[in-house]
Structures are given as structure tokens and as C-alpha cells.
Design brief:
Blueprint lengths: L7 E5 L5 H13 L2 E4 L8 H9 L2 E9 L2 E2 L1 H9 L1 H5 L7 E8 L6 H14 L3 E2 L27 E3 L11 H21 L6
């Protein structure tokens, strides 16, 4: 299966535009459909159908108060409908997050996503990128947050989305590429 025939969806909530920017670069890397969770925690029926039909689903949310936004949690709770029918079983999953603080408890958000994927019977894709953790490391290096489970980004609370670290954005884009690559190994071969 090629990346062009692979169906990948990035479903995300963004409060201030930073997570939206990450979602866009993840989707670019994965050649994925973007599905925005609205301010009330909802997505359309067409979006639910696209998730059911996808080979891979990538979750995204800012980290607020040590976990995903309440809008993402509402989406996750509503995903009990496809869970009950095992519609997402055997899909490939990934996830990413952003916060204003360097730590910001982002790991909790990624663990939440991995657990949600596990509850759906899915396969989680790790970042597979070594961290930038030496004295010579810079703000725009790849994986400067040192994550292994999925991309983490940091943007100061008073910074606009266009001021995000290029290293964080490129880390997210490369993760989208990786999720699509792994999903292509699991997806059934397409016959003409």
C-alpha cells in the first residue's frame, strides 16, 4: 500500500492555534485528513465516518492542567460508540501535544492518547527519534523536548502560533511520515 492510498486522519482540538499548527504539519507528513474538534468538543458525522474508514488515526490536543483539553476528552468519551462495535480495532494510532511550559505535564497527555488507542485495540507508533539533549542543542533542534512516545511541542504562553519552534514543527512533520509508514505496513494490500 502506498501513502497515497493509505487513509490517515489527524483529529485534534486547538485552543489558541498552536496545536492546530502542529496538526497541520503532522497531516502534511502523513498526507492525512485534518479533523478539528470544535469548541464544544464535537465533530461532524462525516468526520466520524472518516475515522471509521481510516487506516491510521493521530490524536492531538494541547496539554491543559496535566492532560488533554476537555474538548478532546469529550471526543474520546464519544468514541465509545466505535469502541463498542470495534470499528477502530487494529488501526495504527499516534498522538502529539503542546503546552506553554517546557514540561507542562505533556507526557500525561500522550499517555492518555496511547491508552485510548489501546482501549480501541489499536497499535501505537512511537516517535523513534533521539532527543536533542547535549550542551550544543538549540531550540530548533529535532525532538528538543526529549519525548519517545510522540511529539511534544512548547510555545510560550504569550507567543503566536507562527513563533513556534521550527524544530518542534519538523519533529511533528516527521512523526506524521513515520505513522503513515508504519500504517502502510499494517494496512491490507489494495487490489485493482
Amino acid at each position: 500500500m502506498t501513502q497515497s492510498t493509505l487513509k490517515t486522519a489527524v483529529v485534534y482540538h486547538s485552543g489558541y492555534g498552536h496545536t492546530k499548527r502542529l496538526a497541520e504539519v503532522v497531516a502534511e507528513g502523513a498526507s492525512a485528513l485534518l479533523i478539528a474538534i470544535d469548541a464544544e468538543g464535537n465533530i461532524s458525522q462525516d468526520a466520524w465516518d472518516a475515522l471509521d474508514d481510516a487506516d491510521a488515526i493521530i490524536f492531538g490536543s494541547p496539554t491543559y492542567m496535566g492532560g488533554p483539553s476537555w474538548q478532546f476528552k469529550k471526543f474520546a468519551d464519544t468514541s465509545s460508540k466505535p469502541w463498542f462495535e470495534e470499528k477502530w480495532k487494529h488501526k495504527v494510532f499516534g498522538g502529539f501535544t503542546n503546552s506553554a511550559s517546557v514540561n507542562g505535564d505533556k507526557l500525561n497527555t500522550l499517555q492518555y492518547f496511547a491508552l485510548l488507542a489501546g482501549q480501541h485495540g489499536g497499535v501505537w507508533v512511537s516517535l523513534a527519534m533521539k532527543p536533542a539533549n547535549v550542551k550544543a542543542s538549540k531550540r530548533d533542534d529535532l525532538n528538543r523536548m526529549g519525548s519517545y512516545i510522540g511529539p511534544m511541542a512548547q510555545c510560550d504562553a504569550d507567543a503566536a502560533p507562527n513563533e513556534m519552534s521550527q524544530g518542534d514543527l519538523e519533529t511533528a512533520r516527521l512523526y506524521g511520515v513515520r505513522v503513515a509508514e508504519i500504517a502502510s505496513r499494517f494496512a491490507p494490500a489494495q487490489t485493482a
